[in-house]
Amino acid sequence: MTREGTEIMDMDRIEREIQIDAPPQRVWDKLTEFFWVNEHGEQPAIETGTTFVAKDEKDVEYPTVIETSEPYTYLAYRWASAYPGRTPGSGDSTLVEFTLTEQAGGTRLRVVESGFATLPEHDGRQAFKDNSGGWDWVIEQLQTALA
Prior knowledge:
single chain, alpha+beta, six-stranded antiparallel sheet, two-stranded antiparallel ribbon, 2 helices, 23% helix
């Protein structure tokens, strides 16, 4: 959308939704491996309040806090993807939410990452750009793993 020649876009949320031909428990089990940021296979406790360190392909560390864990239905975590090494807090992090709904013999998975607008503008734009492509990759890998 444009206003007087200036591009305006919702830079606060990334949303993806897919249908996976697997039951919610199987999707949850794969999802909670955090395979996209867990190259070393260390399994964090999937409990509300747990903090673990996610690492990208370059071994850059991102402390991550599980905000809510409701097995097989909902998982939310907070991370400061724009600030490697920083423990997520107010004004420097985004919230990632996974909602799993049993549907048509499989699972409807909704992924939402929000909070980019709370980051300084440049950092928020870059994190939004990086993470938008990242979620496309994660969903593709998840579908392949569960096929």
